[in-house]
């Protein structure tokens, strides 16, 4: 559509002016549609003066980093994949509070980008030249992080309210006034692959905010298995577009008694959180078909040791948010 063409052309022009003829930028790719579209716009504006950085913080879903590497290498000429699992998990050790988790994750992301910037550009940040950081921040992220007029913080999105005070980057955020459906339209306009454009939203802090309690490697591995099964069954049922997203949440500090075979079990519950939405500002709980719920429940409890109960969240937003933290 011609509005999307306008948005792209206008942003490309603005970014050329902002970054200048020899400025260089790093784009924080999350694997999701927002940062991919932001990066594609900036690549159009400044070409190979853009380097994309994808951080594997150890809280990605099963197989996700490999998938991102495959998909994104096609589209972005310079892609730097950073393994930062130990760094993030060490920083999160002993932390239970959701906002504290979000702030720590936001801070560690920036530290990782600073290190990447030194590696790629030799350390412009903090020097005389400007180091630009491209982010896929959307309008709802700004509002819910307390950046909109007359709003209070609901959650510190890792790329807005979670940023450290001593940030050494200047931000480039070409999607800051857009909603998700508009971003998808722009992505199609730019010719990005439809797997990228239609990928369900996944939060930057990843599974870290879907473990209720302390984040540990063992808990992440458990949740990764349950989540992979839930996603596989949703896809098999052909519901990927109808369902906006379906977080799987691990109640890591809760245990309940169960029975399997002849034995007693004492395991953790997971919560399925399927929602429908237009823009994530509001959402309705999704009426998943019973047979889909049944397959997910049976498979998770059979295939994932230590998870012995599957529950479903039937709260809309408001009053619930989509993610549990
Ligand atoms: P909530 O939980 O606030 O989520 O209803 C609204 C939408 O935003 C996603 N989300 C995030 N995305 N960084 C992101 O990139 C974050 O820190 C973050 N927190 C929530 C969430 O998955 C949903 O689509």
TrEMBL record:
<comment type="subunit">
    <text>Homodimer.</text>
</comment>
<dbReference type="GO" id="GO:0005524">
    <property type="term" value="F:ATP binding"/>
</dbReference>
<keyword id="KW-0332">GMP biosynthesis</keyword>
<feature type="binding site">
    <location>
        <begin position="30"/>
        <end position="36"/>
    </location>
    <ligand>
        <name>ATP</name>
    </ligand>
</feature>
<keyword id="KW-0315">Glutamine amidotransferase</keyword>
<dbReference type="GO" id="GO:0005829">
    <property type="term" value="C:cytosol"/>
</dbReference>
<dbReference type="GO" id="GO:0003921">
    <property type="term" value="F:GMP synthase activity"/>
</dbReference>
<comment type="function">
    <text>Catalyzes the synthesis of GMP from XMP.</text>
</comment>
<protein>
    <recommendedName>
        <fullName>GMP synthase [glutamine-hydrolyzing]</fullName>
        <ecNumber>6.3.5.2</ecNumber>
    </recommendedName>
</protein>
<keyword id="KW-0436">Ligase</keyword>
<keyword id="KW-0658">Purine biosynthesis</keyword>
<keyword id="KW-0547">Nucleotide-binding</keyword>
<feature type="domain" description="GMPS ATP-PPase">
    <location>
        <begin position="2"/>
        <end position="199"/>
    </location>
</feature>
<comment type="pathway">
    <text>Purine metabolism; GMP biosynthesis; GMP from XMP (L-Gln route): step 1/1.</text>
</comment>
<keyword id="KW-0067">ATP-binding</keyword>
